[in-house]
Amino acid sequence: MDGTSLLMLGIILALLCASALFSGTETAFTAASRAFVTRRAKEGDRKAVTLGRLSERKDRVVAAILVGNNLVNTTATALASALLISWFGEGGVAYASLVMTALLVVFSEVLPKTLALRSPDTAALRVVPVLSGTMRLLGPVADVVNLLVRFTLRVFGGRPPEVEKPGITEDELLGAIDLHGMGHQGSADLAARQERSMLRGVLALDDMVMRDVMTHRSRVTSLNAAEPPEQLLAKVLASGHSRFPLLGAGEEILGVVHARDVLRALHAAGDDRARMDLRAVAHPATLVIESRPLREQLQDFRKAPIKMAMVLDEYGSLKGIVTLEDIMEVVVGQIAERGEAILGDLAQEGQVEVRGDVRVRDINRELGWELPEDEAATIGGLAVARHRGIPKVGAEITVEGFTLRVMERRGLRIDRLSVRPPEPPIQH
């Protein structure tokens, strides 16, 4: 083997390495997490800053990489053909085709891309110098290629692709949340599931309104200013709540009274219950419509002295109340009050007994079920909606495989029921 052949073999080997570098760079660049790159850039990583800037024109970068990769592949194949023709004559073309195809596929495509996919974020930061050098050398060529692609698409009636905007969609974020903690076992899996639930709850705040978390007025303990002060004091002491709507004649909303305000009113009256005046200590009521977004109300609660809002219907009548705790439960899950158990602790033998006013969303969240949430806000409302009427005590309603059994009614209201999930399929 003469010196010329050795030189050509060396050049071919170098071109194969360059092809592998281009292939791995392309995979790392396109597979790198934008969230990872953004976080590292904010931490001051210069490579991440450069990578983020290049990602703003991903089409241009990919075109430059592909131009470089095809250039070295074509050159390597041409040199291999010339070398093998000098060795084997015309049959060297077939040999060159077979050998270069195997080398390019295994060592310049599959191997580097597999390595890049093992840790695309780290790999992307490592190949930033390659990306920068490629863009300096082949960036103008990539621009010409993209212009030709757009022109060809217009000629044939296609729509040129829009330049990808940096950022992440809500669907992508939800997908990332679903992947968080996958594969963990035991306590780590439980913690991951709770974290996923909380993250989804944060995103849900933008899509939910006051009616979705409202406590209906039938469940609200309110104070009527027309009642004797002794009765009002007894109602406050008997209740487990700390805030109470204060109503007047014709259910006029006079304000909100905190339990400590009752003590102040009693002290101001010289401990004379009969002279206690709750109107004097009531806070102005926050009045909102039922379609107000939760996120807006949460911002208002941050500045409000009393974390309770009165929800009005379209006729201006009181429909229910929403507290800061109601909104926080969307994120952190059920917050138990005194004497109230967490739904997950109630489940026995696969079923659970709950109040009729428990929200379907809370049941799904705490127990991992998939009851429909678009038909009614509460589990009792779901039973009524599917039964197409008020079911009797003992009635069983089937909803998407779940069995809802009415345990107790108070008037026309379903006060308590049991929910049994579908039987798991029999494994053969």
TrEMBL record:
The record's comment on protein family reads:
Belongs to the UPF0053 family. Hemolysin C subfamily.
User: What positions does the domain CBS occupy?
Assistant: 214-273, 276-337
What is the protein's membrane topology class? Multi-pass membrane protein
Keyword field contains Transmembrane:
yes
Q: Please state where this protein is localized.
A: Cell membrane
Transmembrane segments in this chain: where? Answer: 6-32, 93-111
The protein here is known as: DUF21 domain-containing protein
CDD domains hit by this protein: CBS_pair_CorC_HlyC_assoc
Q: Does the keyword Cell membrane apply?
A: yes
Primary location:
membrane
Q: Which domain of life is it from?
A: Bacteria
